[in-house]
Amino acid sequence: MTVKVDTVWRNARIATMESGAAPYGEINGGTIVAEDGKIVWVGADQEVPAFSADKITDLDGRWVTPGLIDCHTHLVYGGNRAREFEQRLNGATYEEISNAGGGIVSTVKATRDATDHELCQQSLIRLDDFLGEGVTTIEIKSGYGLNTETETRMLRVAGSLGDLRNVRIQRTFLGAHALPPEADGDKNAYIDSVCNDQLPAIAVEGLADAVDVFCDQIGFTYDQTQRVFDAAKIYNLPVKLHAEQLSDLSGAALAADYNALSADHLEFLSETSIVKMAAAGTIAVLLPGAFYFLRDTNVPPIDLLRRHGVPMAVATDCNPGSSPLTSILLAMNMACTLFHLTPVEALSGVTRIAAKALGLSDITGTITVGKACDLAVWNIEHPSELSYAMGQNPLYYRIAGGLSDQPKL
Ligand SMILES: [Zn+2]
User: What is the pLDDT of residues 235-266, one digit of tens each?
Assistant: First the structure.
């Protein structure tokens, strides 16, 4: 009997990115079959069962990878910080910039002042850059509202982007990102409002899939982070953490204690914390764009992460202050050049491992029967080209939930 399906893509070189399979999980001369947005068959062309498909596409030997996943962005914000960038290169100090109203506070003000429509339009421009490079899932954090009204608004806007484009949006509440100007330096009182006002409002509306904190000397302490994690537990929300970017506060170990999905940045990560992350299954998210933009010199301990078997994801950290980066392919290149990841580690880091960092392993991240049909089709001769090139975009087209974008030439 012939099974009726929606779509068949044949004559492809498939990098399934399944773990355990040979580096890229390669199938040469392969077919992918989708029904109702999901993958229902994948394998060699000559072994395809009898399907009657609405649409059959010959990919002429092109490479197909899982749709790419950016598991750490701050994509929704108002304004930008280009003037500040210019001032700094003209010799202004951080203090001078801060006194002139610059820094994160300027983004908070621009975000609070923007209408929903303006926030949405500005964010869509950035989102389209990601989709143009094969991204089918993207995480977006709040954290430039720093009060209930604007934090909830940011997350609503983030959600609305998923109605305007065919992409999966995962939302993370990051109220504990920075101290708003009206807090007058009282971090503990602000954390009270994060736990008792902002988070309950967000949970009640179902606006977040996870909760994050910026744990650092210029952010929040270990104890303050713990209080936010305890509050997240009440609402059954998984946690993630900006940890060990500028100093070692043992944030990653704390994250592991709370079975965090991921600990992110990790330039100053200790081996003790790595051991805890390995035991808890907490993913290490590497953010080479911020490392590059801030001219950081402390490379995350990649060899130790490998040795202890902590899976590494790669993300852009797209944000106006420390990583104005909207290219996941460039993030892959930087992970290889700056952090010495291998191209297969970089591609795993934006597919299978990135899905894990978002708790989406059952849904996306590899080309596997039962998962969403999220794919990227490339004009390349080998997947290493995705990490190798700088500023090239070899995407042919993107397939998200079984639906294809228009192919490029
Ligand atoms: Zn970040």
Answer: 999 999 999 999 999 999 999 999 999 999 99
Question: How far away, in angstroms, is 317 Cα from ligand 1 center?
Answer: 5
Interval between CA 304 and ligand 1 midpoint (Å):
22
With CA atoms as reference, report the closest residue to 360 among 156, 155, 139, 140.
Answer: 139
Distance 372 CA to ligand 1 centre (A): 27
- Alpha-carbon span 108 to 120, nearest angstrom: 16
Q: Give the Å distance between the CA of 243 and the centre of ligand 1.
A: 10
Q: Which whole-number Å values give the CA distances from 280 to 214, 260, 263, in the listed order?
A: 20, 8, 11
CA of 220 to the centre of ligand 1 (A): 14
pLDDT for residue 409: 64
pTM over 0.90? The answer is yes
CA of 265 to the centre of ligand 1 (A): 8
Dihedral angle of Cα 338, 344, 347, 350, to the nearest 10 degrees: -80
Residue in 279, 205, 189, 285 with CA at minimum distance from that of residue 241: 285
